[in-house]
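Objective 1b. Sequence-to-structure analysis of Lrp/AsnC family transcriptional regulator.
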Amino acid sequence: MSVRIDAMDRKILSELQIDAGRSLDEIARAVGSSKTPVWNRIRKLREAGVIGPPTVVPDAEALGFDATFFVLIRTSEHEAEWQAKFLAALKARPEVQEAHRLAGDIDYILKVRVKNARAYDTFYQALISEVRVYNVTALLSMEEIKSTRALPL
């Protein structure tokens, strides 16, 4: 389903990116509209797949997940069977917050959130026991400077 996004839709999306838990009245007031048209636009955007399901973003550190590792993976395996096994292993691991296939010298980069270095090692050992990789480099994030999923609408 194709949907046209106009200036009002962009305003609504921007407000939802700030805090989707606000009431329709608050969002409508912020974009200069009323509740019903805003609700209809949000519904249209959801039906078109522009907006995914609402979720909660927990504070990882408040929950004891103090370590973020960026894991660079190089592989000499590029067959469909290996890829399927690798992707299944990543999807089965809740520690993997993001996974990207890259162009260049590194094949994949993972963002892995764990409680500490020992938990990362447990993750690493489990991953390499399931799939063969050529080289793994783990980079520990010392400080998160910026993190957002918001798009520059």
